[in-house]
Amino acid sequence: MALQRHRSSWSDDDLEEFRELARTFCQKELTPNQERWIENKQVDRELWTKAGEVGLLALSVPEEYGGGGGTFAHETVLLEEQARSGDGAWGVAVHSGIVAHYLLAYAAEERKREWLPKLASGEYVGAIAMTEPGTGSDLQSIRTRAVRDGDSYVVNGAKTFITNGAQADLVVVAVKTDPDAGAQGVSLLVVETDTPGFRRGRVLDKVGLKGQDTAELFFDDVRVPAANLLGEQEGLGFVQLMQQLPQERLLIAVTAVAGMEAAIDQTIAYTKDRTAFGRPIFTFQNTKFTLAQAATEAAVARAFLDQCVERHLRGELDVQGAAMVKLWTTDRVNKVIDDCLQLFGGYGYMTEYPIARAWADVRIARIFGGTNEIMKEIISRTL
Question: Which positions make up the signal peptide (predicted)?
Answer without folding.
Answer: none
